[in-house]
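Notebook, p. 212. Picked up where the previous page left off. The plan for this session was modest: take the two constructs that came back from the sequencing core last week, fold each one, and keep the raw output in the notebook itself so nobody has to go hunting through shared drives later. Recording the first one now, exactly as returned: residue sequence, then the structure token string.
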Amino acid sequence: MILKTNINKYKNSLVFKFVLGMASATLVFFSMLIISNIYSLSVIRNNIINSAENEMKIHMRDINNSFSNAIDDLNEIALNYSTLSDLTKNDESQRYFASIKLSDILSERMNISKTTDILSIYNPDSDMMLLSCSNRISLKEKLSVSDALKKGLINSDHSVGALWMPVKIGEKTYFFKGYSFSGVIIASFIKADTLMSLAKIRDFSADEQIVLTDNSGNFLAGVGNISFPDITYPLDNDSKTQSLLGKYLVVSVNVNSGNARLSTIIKETSIFFRLEYIQYAIAFLGVLALGLMIYVIYYLNKEIIRPVKALVAGTHELETGNWDYQLKNMGKSHEFQTLGNSFNSMAREIKALKISAYEEKIALQKAELKYLQMQIKPHFFLNALTTVSSLTYKNKSEDIRKFVSALSNHLRYMLKSGLNMVSIKEEVEYIKNYFCMQEIKFPNSVFYVFDMDPDVADEQIPQFVIHTFIENSFKHAMTFEEPLSVFVSIKKYNHNDSSAIKIIIEDNGEGFPLEVINMANSQAVEQNSSGHKVGIFNVKRTLSLFYGENGLLKLSNAEPSGARVEIVIPIQKGEQL
């Protein structure tokens, strides 16, 4: 519950609302900044993809043209059908002259072609091999291709309409196409590196590479200024655009004429650099805005929020009674300094007013206590004079002498100057002296018992508190038919988790009327307007003034008859006024 209350207070505070507002503004600003960056990045990324696709279409066109030119070479050779047939003749001279003619045709077509690497004619029956190679083919590569043809690389399954097929021969990868006429095989070979050399017309960035793969994604050849060693093959050839390893952007297109795929691989970090000055400007503005926001929050916290919290804390201190509290460190703002000075001046003035009001209250309570005691003392004194007068009529000189002696001791106790608090022992001796006077007045008609803890004898109580109710018993419970019995108990006990003294006074009279019990036991301490029961009211009011709480006096009727008075005296709480 306390935690929930503190949370609600914080939510309603100026600090929370200010921080929430600044945080909301910051969140909106950075959200816009992030969205702007994401949008800019998306635009740049799409532009790069479109640019890569357009560029690869150009490369693919060049590759398709290379394949088309190589097919033209094959078709040109195939037009010499009769010469090709002579290679299958049994006549060796026919085969020789046919081979000379076909070798010239191969050389002529090779000189015309810019991308074809090997043109070949092979007769498996006679094991005759005719090869024409570009200057890009080494002798080792030439022999490797020748061996592959002899081992059946091309068979009758390859037709003119089939795609160019990639094959690894030796250490190189070639695209080849071939077909046979009456047992004679003609074929064209283009190295994958030769096809990729067509892409070198572009000045590659340091973070880009173009690779040629087969339809399974296996690497065939590549160009670019750098290599990407963390890329593993085969690539995923199911999508046109893909993100690889979270670091690379891959854009791919299919090669129409061959069983191959052309892909551009770009480091995604380079896409951010494409934003150039705009990206740097946005980042700079974001950092600058964040710095300014932090400074504004710091300044407002120092010059506004802290002084406001200090004012709230100062108000709380005044509410709890700390009148010496003074505000400090109210910032450099003239307004808050003026407010702090006004608060400190107000606190000093309130303290002075409180002290003055407290002193006036103390003086009023002293005057009221004196007035209450003056009501108690004349009341008893008049009763004593009445008793002396009655004894004179009965000619009881000895009783008069004893009574006057007891009355002298009694008055000496009553007239102690300025005494408001007395020890319980003094009050009990005073009451016993009072009983002595009453025994003279009512011989053989008074019986009393005191039951007091010895360790409470020196505790202080208001003067006449017990005596008032003893006197009240003689006034209302004394009869000529039955002796008066009075029992007084004075014991320590626990009251509201602190030590106190409980005084119980019981007699055997008829008890209190109900209206008197209700008046005495109520929380009100105002005197009855009828003026009756002044002594009971005075004791109740005296206890309230001395101990600052009500309910210390309780009246009731004992069983089977008699009055019962309970008085609670908190120990060490009263002050002598």
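Okay, moving on. Second construct, recorded in the same format:
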Amino acid sequence: MSGMRPRLTRCAGRLAAGVLLLVSAGTPLRADDGYELWLRYVLVSDAARLAQYRSAITQIVVEGDSPTLDLVRDELTRGLGGLLGRELPTSARSVHAGAVIVGTRASSPLVAALPLAAQLRAVGREGFLIRAMRVHDKPAIVIAGNSDVGVLYGAFALLRQLQTQRPLKGLAITSAPRVQLRMLDHWDNLDRSVDRGYAGGSIWSWAELPGTVSPRYADYARANASLGINAVVVTGPNVNARVLTPEYLRKAGAIADALRPFGIRIFLTARFGAPIEIGGLATADPLDPVVRQWWRHKVDEVYAAIPDFGGFLVQGNAEGQPGPETYRRTHADGANLLADALVPHGGLVLWRAYISSDRTSPDRVREIYDELVPLDGDFRRNVMVQVKNGPLDFQPREPFNPVLGAMPRTPLLLEFQLTKEYLGNDTHLVYLGTLMEEVLHADTFRKGKGSTVARVVDGSLHGSARSGMAGVANIGSDRNWTGSIFDQANWYAFGRLAWDPTLSSGVVAEDWVRSTLSNDSTVVATVRAMMMASREAAVSYMTPLGLTSMTAASNHYGPAPWVTNGRPDWTPAYYHRADATGIGFDRTATGSNAVEQYAEPIRARYGNRENVPDSLLLWFHHVGWRERLSTGRTVWDELVSRYYAGVDSVHAMQRAWSTLAGKIDEERFRQVQGALAIQEREARWWRDASLRYFQTQSRLPIPSHYEQPARPLDFYMRLRCPADPRRPRCDAVR
């Protein structure tokens, strides 16, 4: 996970400036540096819709007094004022026609008097209702919830309705989160470095805390609350154990205080070796009574500093850290040690299912399932096992993780990676909403047809009392938060899908475009189409036909299929297995038999060469170069076709974006145009380098109707990307 941050000025950065398109002449748009994210409350552009909104909304009435209700009042004042282009009165002395009435039955006599009790009971603590109805015989819009934070979520939902220019007539929204724990995991360190971070340093200024609390924390929490995110792990899995010392607990407490009014609880990393590293013990054995007592005292200390502390994220026996296996104990033993210490306080253990043994595995993708599934039922009730979306490591495409659905007695927390470690970092435009939807809608068949991953995540498949979804954050100190504008969409999509995993990624993409860029119909259609095609484009020019882990082991950036040195299961050659006979990893019964980890009929589908989808062909099968696929092409020709199609898709995105000159503010237009120029060059680099290498194995030509790679293989093998002051330069990509 460790790695330094490559900036936007990478492989082709200096060359990209020459291809930027100027914004066409016309009425200047408001400059936008991206800081406001999707919470840009600009005047509604459609005149008829604006008139309707102004007629329907004339007053804000927020009854009640709490830090969260104060935020609701401020957000509606700011948002409705900007969207309607006028200041609205907020007095509650009398209710006018067109009032927006906000509150809970406990805080608001107006809400308590309405016939909403049964409907409110149905939405739980965090849900909300938005209703167009009559109050004191006057038309009004009511936002009601069972808690102040539910009301806050409802306020953001109403503002989204106006931002996306949807009608208010007959408004009737009922919404409740399908997933309990909706969290961001920051891979941030105490020195403000970020493992796999591509948007500057950490937003947490540990050296200044607790005395100075940055106003950026509230802006961050506000953005999360607008999506319904309710938990944050502020430290990475490998963070220094000092984060659990009294000094740092006071600092973490100041962060918790800033986030609490927005309905967000914080979690911290618990290094398994902390009893040794900061406690002075000789062991961290989870069954040692002294170790158990040390953790009980430490947890009491944490809750004294942070009364609503959420719990610990733990990563054991991975990336050089000790864990329970160090002491010949199981992962359940390790998790239960902490769970027992946390249970009196209501805290959770999030046991990260990432295991990296010291020995090379015959098939690394089998490891997590083989280690953890036999432990189903052994974990304490306040343990959630945090499982990656795929069995390997956040690749451009993987099959869904077979652990999902295979541990019916253990709550599983699904983990996506928003920071695009293997997908072009902050430069390549890759909308991850489609990846998330692909995983969430996948059917595990663990309890027959309809046993989707979404039902595993929300707990409904096995009746789990806990449910959760985590996103490895792509957020940093850059002014625009995520390093590039389109990476904001991945933060946004995660939050929306964590609230409701059944949502369409296309609907979420459109909402993001309308809230972040423009409601202009051309902009919406063009950008939505770019986003929806972007991930498949990246898969095509990086890992087509089920290839995986094609990057160098260190920075995970750029093609390196030729790498064989080092630990075998950390090299691309281990995964693609290309040789003179063919390409792909045999995971059927004749190979590693990883396919047995899936339920039927998935097992039969993936394990049968005739039935496996082409998109996962080489993940599960070693296939001859000249074998024909359903497309009628040979494996080699199909591989070539996919690589070139990926580059063509990036060309298409460039052309599409260029048509929006004058419709997007110049600052963001230029940034995206420059990033797309880099992406196009690097997509060709991926294509040409990969095909040059695979030619050495297949001994087959690239058909003559394709543009031939301009360089020999050894040129690509010498490149080191991305260009960064701390790494060799590679501006020579042509």
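Notes on construct two before I forget. Residues 1-27, 723-734 have pLDDT under 50 and may be disordered.
Flagging for discussion at group meeting.
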